[in-house]
Amino acid sequence: MRYSRTLLGGLLFNTTLGLATGVHAASKPVNSPVTYQAPYAKKAPRIDGIANDAAWSQAAWRNIDQLTAGVAPTNSDDFSGRYKVVWTKKHLYILAEISDDILIDSHTNPLEHYWDDDALEIFIDENNNGGEHLFTYDAFAYHVSLDNQAVDIGPFLNAADKQANKTNVRLYPHHVTSQWMRSKEAPNKIYWEVKLAAYPDTYKDEYAKKEKPAKPAKLKTGKKIGFMMAYCDSDSPAGRDHFIGDINIKPVNDDKNRGYIDSSVFGVMELVK
Ligand SMILES: [Ca+2]
Ligand SMILES: [Ca+2]
Ligand SMILES: [Ca+2]
Ligand SMILES: [Ca+2]
Nearest bound ligand to CA 239? Predict the structure, then answer.
Protein backbone atom coordinates (compact mmCIF):
# COMPACT_ATOMS: atom_id res chain seq x y z
CA MET A 1 0.00 0.00 0.00
CA ARG A 2 1.29 3.43 -0.83
CA TYR A 3 1.90 6.38 1.43
CA SER A 4 1.58 4.84 4.87
CA ARG A 5 -2.14 4.31 4.74
CA THR A 6 -3.55 0.85 5.28
CA LEU A 7 -7.24 0.24 5.23
CA LEU A 8 -8.30 -2.60 7.48
CA GLY A 9 -12.06 -2.75 7.47
CA GLY A 10 -12.31 0.97 7.93
CA LEU A 11 -9.69 1.18 10.65
CA LEU A 12 -6.63 3.13 9.68
CA PHE A 13 -3.66 1.81 11.51
CA ASN A 14 0.04 1.95 10.92
CA THR A 15 2.73 1.08 13.38
CA THR A 16 5.40 3.05 11.52
CA LEU A 17 3.54 6.24 12.38
CA GLY A 18 4.01 5.73 16.08
CA LEU A 19 0.32 5.30 16.81
CA ALA A 20 0.86 1.88 18.27
CA THR A 21 3.97 2.82 20.17
CA GLY A 22 2.51 5.65 22.20
CA VAL A 23 4.43 8.47 20.52
CA HIS A 24 2.30 11.58 20.88
CA ALA A 25 2.37 14.52 18.57
CA ALA A 26 3.48 17.84 19.96
CA SER A 27 1.01 20.68 20.34
CA LYS A 28 1.27 23.71 18.14
CA PRO A 29 3.36 26.53 19.65
CA VAL A 30 1.21 29.48 20.69
CA ASN A 31 3.10 31.88 18.44
CA SER A 32 3.02 29.79 15.26
CA PRO A 33 3.49 32.09 12.28
CA VAL A 34 0.40 33.12 10.34
CA THR A 35 0.48 31.51 6.90
CA TYR A 36 -2.69 33.06 5.48
CA GLN A 37 -4.86 36.09 6.24
CA ALA A 38 -8.46 35.60 5.18
CA PRO A 39 -10.52 38.77 4.65
CA TYR A 40 -14.12 39.17 5.81
CA ALA A 41 -16.74 38.85 3.06
CA LYS A 42 -19.64 41.32 3.22
CA LYS A 43 -21.49 39.05 0.85
CA ALA A 44 -20.87 35.32 0.97
CA PRO A 45 -19.73 33.76 -2.32
CA ARG A 46 -22.22 31.56 -4.09
CA ILE A 47 -21.05 27.94 -4.12
CA ASP A 48 -21.50 27.11 -7.79
CA GLY A 49 -17.99 26.54 -9.21
CA ILE A 50 -18.00 29.97 -10.85
CA ALA A 51 -15.34 32.20 -9.36
CA ASN A 52 -16.90 35.55 -10.21
CA ASP A 53 -18.12 36.48 -6.72
CA ALA A 54 -17.05 39.92 -5.54
CA ALA A 55 -15.68 38.53 -2.26
CA TRP A 56 -12.95 36.55 -4.01
CA SER A 57 -11.33 39.70 -5.37
CA GLN A 58 -10.50 40.78 -1.80
CA ALA A 59 -8.43 37.69 -0.98
CA ALA A 60 -4.86 36.78 -1.95
CA TRP A 61 -3.92 33.49 -3.58
CA ARG A 62 -1.73 31.00 -1.76
CA ASN A 63 0.05 28.32 -3.80
CA ILE A 64 -0.47 24.60 -3.29
CA ASP A 65 3.08 23.65 -4.25
CA GLN A 66 4.68 21.60 -1.47
CA LEU A 67 5.16 17.94 -2.37
CA THR A 68 3.96 15.98 0.66
CA ALA A 69 3.81 12.39 -0.65
CA GLY A 70 4.44 10.53 -3.91
CA VAL A 71 6.41 11.81 -6.88
CA ALA A 72 6.45 15.40 -8.09
CA PRO A 73 3.98 16.34 -10.85
CA THR A 74 5.39 15.99 -14.36
CA ASN A 75 4.46 19.55 -15.29
CA SER A 76 1.99 22.29 -14.37
CA ASP A 77 -0.78 20.64 -16.40
CA ASP A 78 -0.37 17.40 -14.43
CA PHE A 79 -1.00 19.41 -11.30
CA SER A 80 -0.77 22.98 -10.19
CA GLY A 81 -3.05 24.78 -7.83
CA ARG A 82 -3.67 27.67 -5.50
CA TYR A 83 -6.42 28.76 -3.14
CA LYS A 84 -7.91 31.68 -1.30
CA VAL A 85 -10.23 32.00 1.69
CA VAL A 86 -12.81 34.53 2.88
CA TRP A 87 -15.13 34.32 5.88
CA THR A 88 -18.47 35.34 7.31
CA LYS A 89 -19.61 35.00 10.93
CA LYS A 90 -20.84 31.50 10.23
CA HIS A 91 -18.60 30.00 7.55
CA LEU A 92 -15.24 29.89 5.85
CA TYR A 93 -15.39 30.04 2.05
CA ILE A 94 -12.58 28.52 0.01
CA LEU A 95 -11.85 28.94 -3.68
CA ALA A 96 -9.36 26.49 -5.18
CA GLU A 97 -8.02 26.89 -8.72
CA ILE A 98 -6.73 23.51 -9.83
CA SER A 99 -5.05 22.36 -13.05
CA ASP A 100 -5.16 18.59 -13.34
CA ASP A 101 -4.77 16.73 -16.63
CA ILE A 102 -7.00 13.78 -15.68
CA LEU A 103 -9.90 13.88 -13.24
CA ILE A 104 -10.68 10.46 -11.86
CA ASP A 105 -13.00 8.93 -9.28
CA SER A 106 -12.32 5.20 -9.60
CA HIS A 107 -13.47 4.20 -6.10
CA THR A 108 -17.19 4.75 -6.30
CA ASN A 109 -17.86 4.21 -2.60
CA PRO A 110 -16.98 7.58 -1.04
CA LEU A 111 -15.80 5.87 2.16
CA GLU A 112 -13.24 3.63 0.45
CA HIS A 113 -9.75 4.68 -0.64
CA TYR A 114 -10.99 8.24 -0.87
CA TRP A 115 -7.39 9.55 -0.88
CA ASP A 116 -6.70 7.50 -4.03
CA ASP A 117 -9.20 9.52 -6.09
CA ASP A 118 -8.79 13.17 -7.02
CA ALA A 119 -9.76 15.17 -3.96
CA LEU A 120 -9.26 18.51 -2.31
CA GLU A 121 -8.06 17.89 1.22
CA ILE A 122 -8.92 20.63 3.69
CA PHE A 123 -7.30 20.46 7.11
CA ILE A 124 -8.82 22.55 9.88
CA ASP A 125 -8.14 22.85 13.59
CA GLU A 126 -10.74 25.33 14.82
CA ASN A 127 -9.00 26.28 18.06
CA ASN A 128 -5.47 25.97 16.58
CA ASN A 129 -4.23 23.92 19.53
CA GLY A 130 -2.40 21.27 17.47
CA GLY A 131 -1.92 17.67 18.46
CA GLU A 132 -2.99 14.26 17.28
CA HIS A 133 -6.40 14.05 15.65
CA LEU A 134 -6.51 10.83 13.62
CA PHE A 135 -9.25 9.23 15.71
CA THR A 136 -10.61 12.38 17.33
CA TYR A 137 -12.33 15.61 16.35
CA ASP A 138 -9.54 17.76 17.73
CA ALA A 139 -9.09 18.66 14.06
CA PHE A 140 -10.57 17.56 10.74
CA ALA A 141 -9.03 16.42 7.44
CA TYR A 142 -11.92 16.69 5.02
CA HIS A 143 -11.31 14.89 1.73
CA VAL A 144 -13.67 16.66 -0.65
CA SER A 145 -14.20 14.28 -3.53
CA LEU A 146 -15.22 14.86 -7.15
CA ASP A 147 -18.80 13.96 -6.22
CA ASN A 148 -18.64 16.84 -3.71
CA GLN A 149 -18.94 14.68 -0.62
CA ALA A 150 -16.56 15.24 2.30
CA VAL A 151 -15.08 12.29 4.17
CA ASP A 152 -12.87 11.97 7.25
CA ILE A 153 -12.07 9.55 10.05
CA GLY A 154 -13.76 10.06 13.38
CA PRO A 155 -13.75 8.26 16.69
CA PHE A 156 -15.35 4.86 17.08
CA LEU A 157 -18.80 5.26 18.58
CA ASN A 158 -18.23 2.70 21.29
CA ALA A 159 -15.87 -0.04 22.40
CA ALA A 160 -18.00 -2.74 20.73
CA ASP A 161 -17.67 -1.03 17.35
CA LYS A 162 -13.94 -0.72 17.83
CA GLN A 163 -13.71 -4.38 18.83
CA ALA A 164 -15.75 -5.38 15.77
CA ASN A 165 -13.50 -3.19 13.60
CA LYS A 166 -16.52 -1.30 12.27
CA THR A 167 -15.92 1.76 10.22
CA ASN A 168 -15.00 5.08 11.74
CA VAL A 169 -14.83 6.71 8.30
CA ARG A 170 -17.74 9.08 7.82
CA LEU A 171 -19.28 11.69 5.58
CA TYR A 172 -19.84 15.23 6.87
CA PRO A 173 -22.51 16.79 4.67
CA HIS A 174 -23.46 19.33 7.35
CA HIS A 175 -19.84 20.56 7.62
CA VAL A 176 -18.90 21.00 3.96
CA THR A 177 -20.75 22.21 0.86
CA SER A 178 -18.79 22.17 -2.38
CA GLN A 179 -19.12 22.56 -6.11
CA TRP A 180 -16.51 22.54 -8.87
CA MET A 181 -16.66 23.38 -12.55
CA ARG A 182 -14.25 23.54 -15.46
CA SER A 183 -13.19 27.04 -16.44
CA LYS A 184 -14.82 28.19 -19.68
CA GLU A 185 -11.65 30.04 -20.69
CA ALA A 186 -9.19 27.26 -19.82
CA PRO A 187 -10.93 23.87 -19.59
CA ASN A 188 -7.88 22.19 -18.03
CA LYS A 189 -8.50 24.38 -14.99
CA ILE A 190 -11.23 23.76 -12.48
CA TYR A 191 -12.61 26.17 -9.94
CA TRP A 192 -13.72 24.52 -6.75
CA GLU A 193 -15.78 26.50 -4.24
CA VAL A 194 -16.27 25.23 -0.70
CA LYS A 195 -18.35 26.48 2.21
CA LEU A 196 -17.02 25.14 5.48
CA ALA A 197 -18.38 25.28 9.02
CA ALA A 198 -15.62 25.39 11.65
CA TYR A 199 -16.62 22.67 14.10
CA PRO A 200 -14.87 22.70 17.49
CA ASP A 201 -13.03 19.91 19.35
CA THR A 202 -16.27 19.17 21.21
CA TYR A 203 -18.04 17.99 18.05
CA LYS A 204 -19.88 14.71 18.49
CA ASP A 205 -21.23 12.49 15.77
CA GLU A 206 -24.93 12.76 15.23
CA TYR A 207 -24.96 9.00 15.69
CA ALA A 208 -23.90 9.42 19.32
CA LYS A 209 -27.47 10.13 20.26
CA LYS A 210 -26.99 10.84 23.96
CA GLU A 211 -24.74 13.77 23.20
CA LYS A 212 -25.97 17.22 22.36
CA PRO A 213 -24.54 18.14 18.98
CA ALA A 214 -21.83 20.79 19.06
CA LYS A 215 -22.45 23.89 16.98
CA PRO A 216 -19.89 25.33 14.58
CA ALA A 217 -17.74 28.10 16.01
CA LYS A 218 -18.82 31.71 15.45
CA LEU A 219 -16.10 33.42 13.49
CA LYS A 220 -14.69 36.86 14.26
CA THR A 221 -11.84 39.18 13.34
CA GLY A 222 -8.52 38.16 14.85
CA LYS A 223 -9.43 34.51 15.25
CA LYS A 224 -6.62 32.07 14.41
CA ILE A 225 -7.47 28.70 12.96
CA GLY A 226 -5.12 25.81 12.20
CA PHE A 227 -5.39 25.38 8.43
CA MET A 228 -3.75 23.56 5.57
CA MET A 229 -4.89 22.96 2.03
CA ALA A 230 -3.85 20.07 -0.20
CA TYR A 231 -4.79 18.14 -3.32
CA CYS A 232 -4.70 14.39 -3.83
CA ASP A 233 -3.88 13.95 -7.53
CA SER A 234 -4.70 10.58 -8.99
CA ASP A 235 -4.53 10.12 -12.77
CA SER A 236 -5.31 6.40 -13.02
CA PRO A 237 -7.17 3.69 -11.08
CA ALA A 238 -3.79 2.70 -9.59
CA GLY A 239 -4.19 5.40 -6.94
CA ARG A 240 -2.68 8.65 -5.85
CA ASP A 241 0.26 9.91 -7.90
CA HIS A 242 1.13 12.85 -5.72
CA PHE A 243 -0.13 14.69 -2.71
CA ILE A 244 0.64 18.38 -2.63
CA GLY A 245 -0.13 20.92 0.03
CA ASP A 246 0.55 24.53 0.94
CA ILE A 247 2.79 23.80 3.93
CA ASN A 248 6.34 22.45 3.92
CA ILE A 249 5.94 19.83 6.63
CA LYS A 250 8.88 18.76 8.79
CA PRO A 251 9.27 15.04 8.04
CA VAL A 252 9.13 12.29 10.65
CA ASN A 253 11.04 9.18 9.49
CA ASP A 254 11.25 10.82 6.04
CA ASP A 255 7.46 11.09 5.94
CA LYS A 256 5.89 14.51 5.33
CA ASN A 257 2.39 13.08 5.11
CA ARG A 258 1.59 13.97 8.72
CA GLY A 259 -1.44 16.23 8.36
CA TYR A 260 -4.10 13.55 8.69
CA ILE A 261 -2.55 12.50 12.00
CA ASP A 262 -1.10 15.61 13.62
CA SER A 263 -2.67 19.06 13.39
CA SER A 264 0.52 20.66 14.75
CA VAL A 265 1.87 20.58 11.17
CA PHE A 266 -0.96 22.76 9.82
CA GLY A 267 -0.41 26.40 8.98
CA VAL A 268 -2.25 29.20 10.76
CA MET A 269 -5.03 31.18 9.16
CA GLU A 270 -5.92 34.53 10.68
CA LEU A 271 -9.33 36.07 10.07
CA VAL A 272 -8.92 39.74 9.24
CA LYS A 273 -11.31 42.60 8.39
CA1 LIG B 1 -19.29 31.30 -7.08
CA1 LIG C 1 -2.74 15.02 -12.77
CA1 LIG D 1 -8.19 21.46 18.05
CA1 LIG E 1 -6.01 13.81 -11.40
Answer: 4
